[in-house]
Structure formats: C-alpha cells, structure tokens
UniProtKB/TrEMBL annotation, chains A, B:
GO MF term list: hydrolase activity
Matching InterPro entries: NUDIX_hydrolase-like_dom_sf (IPR015797), NUDIX_hydrolase_dom (IPR000086), WH-like_DNA-bd_sf (IPR036388), WH_DNA-bd_sf (IPR036390), WHD_NrtR (IPR054105)
Key words of the record: Hydrolase
Keyword Hydrolase appears in the UniProt entry: yes
The protein's name in its UniProt record: NUDIX hydrolase
Domain Nudix hydrolase stretches: 13-143
Length: 231, 231
C-alpha cells in the first residue's frame, strides 16, 4: 500500500562528478576530460557518470573514477549536490560533486578515457560544460578552507618532500605568495612533520632536506576542532 | 540521439530532509514530526518530502518546510546527500539533507502537519526513522564547527537578547559550560554586537542589558576566512 505513496512521485537521473585536484611539486592541477558524446561533445568536462541501482553515491564516485582513469584507492569526499532544472540539456540530471586529492607523479592512468584526460594547471583550466565551473569553484573554496583549518598535503605530496614543495602547495591552494620564514615557523608549530637525514640533491648543489608527515600526529590534527592555520 | 545515452540509465526518487534547529533563549531544540504513513508510520522523523520535476533542491526544501509547518523565509543550507541502497524500506530514495536555524519564539506554525510536529530539546530527542539520526549528527557537527569558526546566533536569537542568552546558545551548541567572563571577552573581541540602552527586566530585579547584532559587521565576519572563535 505504501508503494503507491512512492510511485506517484517523479524519478530523476542522478550522476556523480569528480573534481580531481593534483599536485606535481610545483603547481596545483585539475584533471579534466574531453567529453565524447552529445550534448557538448568535444568540450572539457569533469569526470563523471550515472549512479546505478546497486551502489551508493560513494561507490559510484569510486567506480567512475576507476573506470575512466584507472585510478583507485583515492581519497574522495562528497561536497555538494547540484540540481538546477536545465543544468544538463540532455535530460534532467541531478549531480553530486565529489572532490579528490592526489599526487600527480605517483599515479599512472590506464582507464578507458586516458587519451581524453589531461592535467591542467588550475590557473589555466579551460571553460567547462554545464555547471562544472561552479563545482570547481566550490571545491577550490573547500580546499582553501581546509588548508586554513587543518594540515593538508598528505594526499597531494609524494611520501618524501622538501619544505619548498610544501610551501608551493600552500601557495597554490591559497593563491598567494607566502613569506618563507613565517611559513616554516607555522608549519613547525603544527608538529606534524618529521625531518629526515636525507636530502633532495636535484634542487641545488647544497640540496634540500626531505620531510615526511608523522601520520598519527597529522590525523590527530585533522580531527581536532578549533584549530586554525593563520598565514 | 543523445537521449538514448541518458535513457538507458537508472532513475531514482530524490527527497529532501530538513534538520530544523531552534533556540528558545535557554536550550537548543530540534523540530520533528510523527510520520503519518508506512513504512515506519507513527515514528518520529525529520520533516521531508520528494523533489518535483519543476523545482531544484533548494526550492523543494523551502516548499516542504512551508507546506508542513507554515514556516517561510527561513535560512536553509544543504549539508549532505544520503544514498545507502536500503535506507528507505519503501522504495530506493536518495535524500539531500538541509539544515535550518530559527528562533523558536518568533515563529508560529500553521502548516498541515502542525499537530504532528514537536520541538524537542536536542538532548532529549527521540530515536528517528531511517538514517535520520545520522543526518542530525552531521548537522550538529556542522553547527558546532560553524560556532567555532564564525559568529552565530543571528537566525537563532530574537532581535534583542541578553548576554546570558547568547552564552546559553553557545553552551547548547558546543555542549559544554563556558566561563562567563572569558565568554564575554571573546564575544566582545568579535565586535559584532551593539549594546542597547535598554534592559530585560524579567531576568532579575537589576535586569540585564539587551544587545542586537550589528548586521553589517556580523555578515563581514561570516564571510571572512581564517577566523576562529577559540573557547
């Protein structure tokens, strides 16, 4: 009997779209693909796909990302659901946006869309289809807020990294130059880094010390409320 | 031609559920209704309903809230979309949770569900249907994070309020007692209050000064990044 109650309601298509941020030790990047079907065929798009009957949204995001790019075991987080009536001119589709953070150099693609996928510098990203530009703006704001309130970098940096690379990452996310000495002091006060007895010799003749995150301390800081990284 | 692409995909029901927080100058409350249809008829539930063809999610949340309670012009914010396959035993339904903040005393209900609706003290709320408990937990965490990073109270307090009422609100949200002098110092350092030359005489023989929010300064602080209210 209660089925009647549900059955008179309108059904809709539900999609997921992934804003995939990457870092290549220098700049913040975003992974986009060239759409290979109408409408908007040939234009740049976020990586996305439809929700299926047998999965929840998180599972759909993981499947879409893995199928199209070959990437798996990626940190994904739901950020917002977009529902403007005409957002997709093909058919009404509600889309749930996810954001992902990855280290560009440690991830190799072998998904079905690999030829169509491309990493863009976040500052040089092309115009996107539908409301995908709006999704990217929200994801950037989320990433910025995260960087100001929690330690960040674990998913974006290689295991070992230099202080300069960490500063590059914060500068990319916050979109401003930071004072080096001030940055180092702030980062050290977070107490989430371990300085290694090992140098990256590729950057200068003297080399630069390498660091790793202290995973336990890092996770603890991420969980903490009321923390702020003021820079 | 592209329609074929969309038409082979699964469609689902999409609903909105509203976590409505209220404040009565003493305690944080939540508005719940007794569900009047199966499944789970007679149990306590968030206020919700299905998305219709001719509206986006924000509009659906506004409509559902107004139809069921008579409340309009309420601050609503989307927080998360829930999609576990069996979350609704009636039929697969994806639900987008919204949270709302209102001042209990200034809002009078006259919607169709008014007899079934009830304000519960947040600490004494009953067990809810489906995954609604999980939604409330997320909304409480969001409210707490908001109270720690932005000024809060504009939507929850009456226009004029005492410092004690504002402290009650923060204590309810953060779920802990706060030191009075420390709280007053922190709040004053925010510089978002205007002290009136007028007292609430109902609280004691001496009375307590009334305050209003300086709306411009308040809004500016809400927009600011990197602010933290450490208490």
């Amino acid at each position: 009997m209660h089925l009647n109650y549900y059955q008179k309601e309108d059904q809709v298509l539900l999609a997921v779209d992934c804003i995939i941020f990457g870092f290549d030790k220098e700049n913040l990047k975003i992974l986009l693909i060239k759409r290979n079907f109408e409408p908007e065929k040939g234009k740049w798009s976020l990586i996305g796909g439809f929700l299926k009957k047998n999965e929840n949204l998180d599972e759909a995001a993981v499947r879409v990302l893995e199928t199209l790019t070959g990437l798996n075991d990626i940190y994904l987080e739901q950020i917002h659901t977009y529902s403007k009536i005409d957002r997709d001119p093909g058919q009404r589709t509600i889309s749930v946006a996810y954001f992902a953070l990855i280290d560009v150099d440690s991830h190799h693609f072998d998904g079905i869309q690999i030829d169509a996928a491309h990493w863009f510098d976040i500052k040089e990203a092309p115009n996107l289809i539908f409301d995908h530009n709006e999704m990217v703006q929200k994801a950037k704001a989320r990433l910025k807020r995260r960087a100001l309130s929690k330690p960040i970098g674990f998913e974006l940096l290689p295991e070992k990294f230099t202080m300069r690379q960490l500063q590059n990452l914060y500068e990319s996310i916050l979109d401003k130059k930071l004072d080096k000495r001030n940055f180092i002091n702030k980062i050290n006060s977070l107490d989430v880094l371990i300085k290694l007895d090992e140098k990256d010799m590729s950057v200068s003749r003297k080399g630069a010390y390498l660091y790793v995150f202290d995973k336990d301390k890092y996770e603890k800081k991420v969980e903490e409320d009321g923390f702020i990284f003021k820079i």
